[in-house]
Design brief:
It is a single chain. The chain is an alpha/beta fold. It has a domain at about 20-70 and about 105-150: Ribosomal protein L13 (Ribosomal Protein L13p, Chain: A), CATH 3.90.1180.10. It is built from 5 helices and 6 strands, in the order βαβαββαααββ. It has helices at about 30-40, 75, 95-100, 100-110, 120-125; strands spanning about 20-25, 60, 80, 90-95, 125-130, 145. The strands form 2 sheets. A 4-stranded parallel beta sheet has the order 5-2-1-6, covered by helices on one side. A two-stranded antiparallel ribbon has the order 3-4. Helix 1 packs across helix 4 and helix 3 crosses helix 4. It starts with 19 loop residues before the first strand and ends in a 6-residue tail after the last strand.
């Protein structure tokens, strides 16, 4: 019997092809950029995507200090945290958080778009965010991509 047989290929840790990707954050909108970075980290742009495996690429983000937020989000968007003590709820606006550390703004945005489980924590470790042009992953020979070309 000559019939075409197709097998669904499920990726695992041994068969995953991980690459290093360089993203320039200058003149990018935070939410749009973060959602595309989360998809790259997750591996959704690859044909061998498997939901339960870390099959995404490692992402390096440079120029975190040149990010844009649309509308009045610099003043109105709040990041709330709780210290664990009574009366310990603290909040920062996006501008205050950006002035403290611009990388945290991107990290918090991308982390919120990843799964909330062990896989999400593992995927988040594949993200490196830097202020300025210089980064420590030169030895990995990252491929520079333009996020505006991705859908």
């Amino acid at each position: 019997m000559d019939s075409l047989t197709y097998k669904t290929i499920s990726a695992n840790q041994g068969t995953v092809d991980k690459k290093w990707v360089l993203v320039d954050a200058s003149e990018q909108t935070l939410g749009r950029m973060s959602s595309k970075i989360a998809k790259i980290l997750r591996g959704k742009y690859k044909p061998s995507f498997t939901p339960h495996v870390d099959c995404g690429d490692n992402v390096i983000v440079i120029n975190a200090e040149k990010i844009n937020l649309s509308g009045n989000k610099w003043e109105n968007k709040e990041y709330i945290r709780y210290t664990g003590y009574p009366g310990g709820q603290k909040s920062l606006t996006a501008k205050e958080l950006f002035d403290k550390d611009p990388t945290r703004l991107i990290e918090k945005s991308v982390k919120g778009m990843l799964p909330k489980n062990k896989l999400g924590a593992q995927l988040f470790r594949n993200l490196k965010v830097y202020v300025g042009e210089n980064h420590k992953q030169e030895g990995q020979n990252p491929i520079s991509i333009n996020l505006k070309e991705l859908k």
